[in-house]
Specification:
The chain is built from five helices and 16 strands. With about 350 residues, the chain is of the alpha+beta class. The chain has three domains: about 35 residues; about 40 residues; about 170 residues, no CATH class. The strands form six sheets. Strands 12-13-14-15-16 form a five-stranded antiparallel sheet. The chain has a three-stranded antiparallel sheet with strand order 9-10-11. Helix 3 packs across helix 4. It is elongated and about 185 Å long.
Length: about 350
């Protein structure tokens, strides 16, 4: 008799492991110490193991991703050239200028295109050539043809033109309009203040940059050289007898500086003078650059000789006059004595 096969013994099912609880970390509400707890304990008040104070367990929220900060742009007002700061996304929007109150369009400034003859990497390394390097740069951007500038009285406005370097102010019309095109003599104070902006200053030669940053405007003058052969600019003389000399400083030899000189009193302002010959400051001198050294020495020698001869002639004339005066004084004295003698007789 065959035996029935034994059924396999089935034991109890293996214990099912419960999922590990999700642990969360949050800071203490009092000391900011880190606390680790299970998710089902959210909202429970416990004692902080760090500071011992009661704190509520919570799920920290992920920090919000901040949107990128807007890029701020600065541009000048189209009327008064006052600085305006705005979000780059507002370029092209018309706003009211906080400085002058007039409507102006926000724009992203860009360097005006200039001719290749005007842009140089190192002005001082080139030979002095007033026509191509030292003069004002040639600007062709039409957006700079008409720029409104508020007058000092706060009521009138002048129009500055960078293309032709003109201004409608009376000072330009009377003193600067006769200067040649792009000559520094066309710089009235309004053109100087309008050119004194970051996108244009790098385009100016060092000597013109010094004139613009002074901001007062200059009388039409001429280029010349100092004793070391460096280029200088001598302005015209104003009604008080003062002129300006834009020359290199003695200390660094790289920065141009404005030196004042009075042609009537023959003195320098504050006793500070550049390294130049005062003979070159004669307003009637027409030469744009000094002549050779030998010619200069010859002219100085001739001038000294004429001065010595003049002094000799003056001394001789004074001596002759003195002799005549003494002679006539003697005659008068002798005549008086004779008249007195006749009275006593």
């Amino acid at each position: 008799m065959s035996r029935a096969p034994k059924k396999p013994e089935i034991g109890p099912p293996p214990p099912v492991s419960s999922p590990s609880p999700m642990l969360i970390k949050c800071p203490c509400n009092n000391c900011s110490g880190h606390l680790e707890f299970e998710a089902h304990q959210v909202g429970v008040t416990v004692s902080c193991p760090h500071c011992g104070l009661d704190t509520v367990l919570f799920i920290p929220q992920a920090p919000l991703v901040s949107s990128p900060s807007p890029m701020l742009i600065k541009c000048p007002c189209n009327n008064c050239s006052g600085h305006l700061e705005f979000d780059s996304r507002r370029a092209g929007v018309t706003v009211s200028c906080p400085h002058c109150g007039l409507d102006t369009v926000l724009f992203i400034p860009r360097a005006p295109p200039v001719s290749s003859a005007s842009v140089t990497t190192d002005y001082d390394s080139r030979p002095a050539d007033p026509e191509s390097i030292l003069n004002l740069p040639e600007i062709t951007d039409e957006s700079f043809r008409s720029i409104k500038f508020r007058a000092s009285d706060g009521e009138n406005y002048y129009t500055v033109n960078f293309i032709d370097y003109t201004c409608t102010c009376p000072s330009f019309v009377g003193a600067h309009s006769t200067a040649p095109p792009r000559d520094p003599g066309r710089l009235c104070k309004h053109i100087c203040q309008s050119l004194n902006r970051p996108e244009i200053l790098p385009l100016l030669s060092p000597i013109c940059r010094a004139m613009v940053q002074e901001g007062f405007g200059i009388y039409t003058g001429r280029f010349d050289r100092d004793k070391n052969g460096n280029t200088i600019y001598i302005t015209g003389v104003n009604s008080s007898g003062w002129l300006d000399v834009f020359a290199l400083k003695r200390r660094d030899g790289k920065t141009y500086y404005r030196f004042g000189y009075n042609v009537n009193e023959r003195r320098w302002a504050y006793g500070v003078r550049p390294q130049i010959n005062e003979e070159s400051l004669n307003p009637r001198r027409k030469a744009a650059y000094p002549t050779s050294t030998s010619a200069g020495r010859g002219s100085r020698f001739l001038g000294g000789t004429v001065a010595v001869v003049g002094r000799i002639i003056l001394f001789a004339a004074q001596a002759v006059v003195g002799v005549f005066v003494a002679f006539f004084a003697g005659l008068l004295a002798s005549g008086t004595k004779r008249r007195r003698g006749k009275r006593w007789l």
